[in-house]
Write a structure and sequence with these properties.
about 575 residues; mainly alpha; three-stranded antiparallel sheet; 3 strands; about 5% strand
Length: about 575
């Protein structure tokens, strides 16, 4: 600890290995606490360690990391334990940018974005609540500042050139060349005055355009002024008029990132408040579960009951988790309250329309917001990367949450004497069904993305991918007779391919750099809606009635669909990612 304190204000590259390890381990701890898989945690730690000249060997589990860091001369082993786990896709995204920011500031290239200035501006403005808009505002301010600086230089050089032309005229040494230069200076001065007379805006595009025009006229003026200076014997160009090299400017900007500065950025990332209030989070859960119910075959009454129940249940869940109460206890309480609220809503509607009383399966949809989609998928991906300890731990954690949730649903069903038998057929046309499914899948994935604390742009991108893949999955089951397990595999595979295509398009400049997001933040919300929650709740219901044959039937149905989801994502990664294609 004393070594870290002594080197706290030193550049990271010059600090001791203990100080470097403190940054590396903290990045791994924050990434692990965000719900990502152990393979991504190790990858992130290596990305941070490489520009610092440190080699890392890490053992990553569900809630702890043990890593040894060495720089060839010293070795440090650290252990980090987390009290619990959760999901925060915004933090995963910010840590990707932090790794690029650190690498570029240490003289390495950017791996996350082709344009390194995006990560630079984002990490420099982490104190902004809206990180996306911080990037845009930072770019606008930088472009406007550069345009203003160029305008001042332009005015000074135009005035200087005009003064020299006048002096040459008075001395009678300029002749025809002086007349041509005078006309050129007057023309440039008029263009400058006309540009300054135009109204100024804060838009990035106008600032960049103005900067380009001024830079062009500046280049022409420099040529004229240089000619006049060289025409006088003994004259030398002023050092302040020489343009700085791009390399020198970049080196000046990116030099000297200290241990303190790195930890200050990580402090901001760690303590950022959730993007959404508990009330908005409850609304997103209500939208997600109502959409989920429609995709399972439910009607308006089923969706209404699920909407009310999931909204109330998620509000209670978010409030209790904010007080750091045990996750399993919170899950049980939230599920029971959500199921009771759903049943109460349908019973109240039954006073006006008795048909609502027949929708006794809707309460299952109201408790689907507690499905642990992230650990289910990341556990499977960890196993695909041969990380069995972490994969088994994540799957065990996910199954424990599912067991608690399904048990809570069964308790409610026994309390109010429910016997869910499924949803009634809607009898819609093929085109109407496909369109409504796409809309419901879009809304459902958007709702789950908000629950994962995704920024709105990230949630919308995931929702687009989910609308395509889930609609395709359901249409293949209905029109082509594809088994649910194979349809789930194909849907997850397509989601992985679309997320990879989106990320590649951003890196190549085909899409704006602000919408470049980690694949896992897009694929997992897109396929969470494919998790067979109805199968799992039915299995628990029959198990509670000691109908073991029906319970085992639904358990194996759910198991086959669940394992096909990470297999589909892993297949897409093997095809598109060399690090997954080869065992190295």
């Amino acid at each position: 600890m004393k070594d870290i304190i002594c080197d706290y204000d030193k550049p990271l590259e010059e600090a001791c290995v203990a100080a470097k390890a403190s940054v590396i381990m903290r990045v791994g701890m924050l990434d692990l606490g965000s719900g990502t898989g152990s393979f991504r945690v190790r990858e992130m730690m290596h990305r941070v360690a490489y520009p610092l000249g440190v080699h890392v060997r890490a053992e990553v589990n569900l809630t702890d990391i043990e890593a040894t860091c060495t720089d060839g001369t010293e070795r440090v082993t650290e252990v980090v334990d987390l009290p619990t786990t959760g999901v925060n896709t915004e933090r995963i995204w910010l840590l990707e940018h932090f790794a690029d920011w650190l690498a570029v500031n240490c003289g390495q290239g950017s791996t996350y974005h082709k344009a390194a200035d995006i990560s630079q501006e984002l990490v420099d403005h982490l104190d902004q609540v809206k990180a996306h808009w911080a990037v845009r505002r930072a770019q606008e301010m930088e472009a406007a500042k550069a345009a203003q600086s160029a305008a001042k230089v332009q005015e000074r050089r135009v005035a200087k050139a005009a003064k020299m032309v006048r002096e040459l005229k008075e001395q009678g040494c300029a002749g025809e060349q002086a007349a041509q230069d005078s006309a050129q200076v007057q023309q440039q001065s008029g263009a400058l005055l006309q540009a300054q007379a135009q109204p100024q805006t804060s838009g990035l595009g106008q600032a960049q355009t103005q900067y380009q025009v001024q830079a062009q006229s500046q280049s022409q003026t420099n040529t004229s002024a240089q000619y006049q200076l060289n025409s006088q014997p003994g004259s030398q160009p002023s050092s302040q008029d020489q343009p700085q090299s791009v390399e020198a400017a970049v080196s000046k900007r990116l030099s000297g990132v200290t241990v303190r500065q790195a930890h200050e950025r990580l402090d901001i990332i760690e303590h950022r408040k959730p993007l959404y209030s508990p009330l908005f989070s409850a609304f997103s859960a209500a939208v997600a579960c109502a959409s989920f119910v429609f995709l399972l075959g439910g009607g308006l009454y089923d969706m209404a009951g699920a909407f009310v129940g999931a909204g109330i249940g998620q509000f209670v869940r978010r409030s209790l988790l904010g007080r750091r109460i045990n996750q399993f206890f919170v899950t049980a309480v939230a599920v029971i309250i959500a199921a009771l609220a759903c049943i109460g809503t349908l019973r109240l509607a039954g006073l006006f329309d008795p048909v609502a009383l027949r929708h006794d399966t809707a309460y299952i949809g109201a408790i689907l917001f507690v499905i642990p989609g992230f650990p289910l998928v990341t556990g499977g991906l960890d196993i695909a990367k041969m990380d069995f300890p972490s994969g088994v731990q994540r799957l065990t954690y996910a199954l424990s949450i599912i067991l608690v949730a399904t048990f809570g649903g069964w308790v409610v069903a026994r309390m109010v004497q429910l016997n869910p038998q499924g949803f009634d057929a809607l009898n819609l046309s093929l085109g109407t069904t496909a369109g409504l499914r796409a809309l419901a899948a879009f809304c459902g994935v958007w709702g789950f993305s908000v629950l994962f604390n995704s920024p709105q742009r990230m949630a919308l991108v995931a929702a687009i991918i989910g609308a395509i893949t889930d609609t395709m999955r359901l249409e293949m089951q209905d029109l082509m007779g594809v088994p649910p397990e194979m349809a789930a595999f194909l849907g997850a595979f397509l989601a992985g391919m679309l997320a990879t295509a989106w990320r590649s398009s951003v890196r190549r400049g085909w899409l704006p750099p602000e919408v470049g997001y980690p694949r896992i933040c897009l694929t997992v919300p897109a396929i969470v809606i494919m998790v067979p929650g109805l199968y799992m709740y039915r299995a628990m219901f029959y198990l509670g009635q000691f109908n073991t044959l029906s319970a085992m039937d639904w358990i194996f149905r759910a198991f086959m669909v669940i394992i096909c989801l990470p297999i589909g994502l892993a297949t897409a990664r093997v095809i598109t990612d060399r690090a997954w294609r080869y065992d190295v």
